Amino acid sequence: MDCIFCKIIRGEIPCAKIFEDENTLAFLSIGPISKGHTLVIPKKHAEVYMDLDDESINDLATTLKKVATMVKKGTGADGLNLGLNVHEAAGQVVPHVHFHVIPRINGDGLSTWPGGTYEDGEIEEWTKKIKGALE
Ligand code: AMP
Ligand code: ZN
What CATH class has 4-108? Predict the structure, then answer.
């Protein structure tokens, strides 16, 4: 398969490995937002998070916790951003599920997302739309 992260999993492309177990892998991003920026991936290929079966999600969550703890301790960061981009519209470039673990230092100046507002009645509308999508 022509997926760059699957190639890393198969050892066809090198990576700076942080952690590996039977079903998951963590390695440093080659384009770090901050030093120590780590990616956590399932070994089973899936394009986006919602495509994963529940067992893979559990495995990924367990590794994410472990790796987040390692990254915070190992880098001495004050905090972390744990991020997941879903589809191109949200900034996903590599079509293989990956959590970002990004070390943050107090006052590091990295921008965070803007906070918006809801007009009167809008919050109820959006709640209804999203709750109505429960399958
Ligand atoms: P995203 O924009 O959420 O798809 O993030 C893709 C991430 O993968 C970025 O952090 C890239 O720097 C990283 N990346 C892409 N190719 C590689 C690679 N060969 N080894 C390590 N990280 C990679
Ligand atoms: Zn893949």
Answer: alpha beta
